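Design a sequence for this backbone.
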């Protein structure tokens, strides 16, 4: 849907967080805010600058929809909601900030290129690294989407390339696709919003449903679930990375075919799995005609993102690693594989119907994992799987009552081992316990900061 099509329409903004507020500011700037209503599922405090707009919550939705031409929904509003489906049947147009921006660029800014990255894990690091290198090499580039600024805030700015992190929520009902897309992987996550894992995977790959001639899609050949669903991608210009004839990771190095490109030991970025992400990033850079040797040098100044294998501090030989972004067992597994030290792993969060078999098998087969401490709603499930699989005399399992207790137990354990790493890798979402993974990660950092040195 194009922005001009919103003129004189009765618009319902469903969801009024940062993205919803950004949309309303944009509509106001364009003079398209005369018939705007705000709706949230739960009552929320509307900032002072928006007090002049009618705002509703709860049971008001049914009446609002009878007088609505267009719903601009926030990412958290599932397209599978009965109310959304019913509204569409009644002729209400449903769109999103992401679709508006991508449509506008595709049809009104033909010289601009959209580069979008999606996947279960690794999106933020991938787009940040890509943006960093492109900026270093003089590309006129903007970064936004599911990371940083909402895309609609960037639309009126001056750029030639838009690098966007796109979630499955944002990709699920797009009417246009990016010029260049990259998929990092697919794991079992977000099933509640999508109703099923199958929907989740197909919604994620809907990002490229409208790609055409000249558009490119890069797919991680090492991720089995992604490869299974990638077979459904209709774009003939699909390319695979993390394969021997392309950019691929081996050990702690990134290669192009047989040529070494970079060594992760020379980067500030840690986590061997990030080389898989960089294989995709460097594939995109090659498509753009960037200087790959210079790109490898540019990565040396790339600062890792917070809450992603973030080195918090070291006390009495114990290093604390904040990996709060981890919302799948596979993410914790990748994190554990990134370290050779003795370690204690702290995991647990909201129940998300995850399978912890591979997580437990890795713990069983890695004597460096001295203890796993489980927490919160899915803690008992993780603990049960570990009891079923792990049978090591040098290993301990603890079900803790709080993150504070978990950190202190981990610290004490590793001091007795002569040092090591405390890895906070939750494996599941934070909702119900924290507002988001950032608040969760900051709580971990705060607890570590109060420990005795």
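Sequence:
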């Amino acid at each position: 849907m194009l922005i001009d099509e919103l003129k004189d329409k009765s618009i319902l903004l469903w969801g009024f967080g940062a993205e919803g507020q950004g949309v309303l500011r944009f509509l106001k700037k364009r003079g398209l805010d005369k018939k705007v209503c705000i709706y949230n599922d739960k009552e929320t405090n509307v900032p002072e600058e928006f007090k002049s707009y009618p705002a509703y919550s709860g049971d008001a939705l049914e009446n609002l929809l009878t007088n609505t031409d267009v719903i601009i929904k926030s990412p958290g509003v599932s397209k599978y909601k009965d109310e959304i489906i019913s509204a569409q049947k009644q002729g209400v147009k449903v769109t999103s900030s992401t679709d508006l921006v991508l449509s506008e660029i595709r049809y009104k800014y033909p010289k601009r290129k959209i580069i979008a990255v999606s996947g279960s894990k690794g999106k933020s690091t991938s787009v940040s690294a890509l943006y960093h290198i492109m900026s270093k090499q003089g590309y006129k580039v903007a970064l936004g989407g599911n990371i940083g600024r909402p895309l609609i805030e960037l639309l009126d700015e001056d750029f030639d390339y838009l690098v966007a992190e796109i979630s499955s929520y944002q990709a699920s009902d797009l009417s246009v696709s990016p010029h260049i897309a990259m998929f990092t992987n697919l794991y079992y996550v977000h099933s509640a919003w999508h109703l099923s894992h199958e929907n989740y995977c197909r919604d994620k790959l809907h990002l490229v449903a409208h790609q055409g001639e000249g558009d490119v899609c890069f797919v991680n050949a090492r991720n089995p679930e992604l490869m299974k669903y990638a077979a459904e991608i209709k774009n003939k210009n699909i390319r695979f990375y993390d394969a021997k004839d392309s950019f691929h990771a081996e050990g702690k190095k990134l290669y192009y075919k047989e040529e070494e490109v970079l060594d992760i030991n020379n980067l500030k970025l840690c986590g061997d799995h990030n080389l898989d992400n960089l294989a995709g990033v460097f594939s995109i850079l090659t498509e753009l005609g960037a200087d790959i040797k210079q790109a490898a040098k540019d990565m040396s100044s790339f600062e890792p993102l917070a809450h992603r294998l973030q080195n918090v501090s070291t006390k009495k030989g114990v290093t604390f690693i904040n990996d709060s972004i981890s919302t799948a067992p596979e993410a914790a597994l990748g994190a554990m594989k990134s370290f050779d030290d003795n370690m204690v792993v702290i995991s647990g969060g909201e129940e998300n119907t995850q399978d912890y078999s591979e997580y437990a098998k890795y713990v069983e087969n890695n004597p460096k994992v001295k203890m796993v401490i489980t927490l919160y709603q899915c803690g008992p499930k993780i603990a049960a799987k570990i009891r079923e699989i792990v049978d090591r005399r040098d290993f301990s399992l603890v079900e803790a009552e709080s993150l504070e207790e978990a950190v202190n137990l981990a610290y004490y354990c590793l001091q007795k081992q002569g040092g090591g790493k405390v890895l906070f890798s939750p494996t599941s979402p934070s909702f119900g316990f924290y507002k988001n993974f950032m608040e969760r990660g900051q709580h971990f950092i705060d607890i570590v900061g109060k420990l005795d040195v």
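The chain has three domains: 7-91, 99-301, 310-449.
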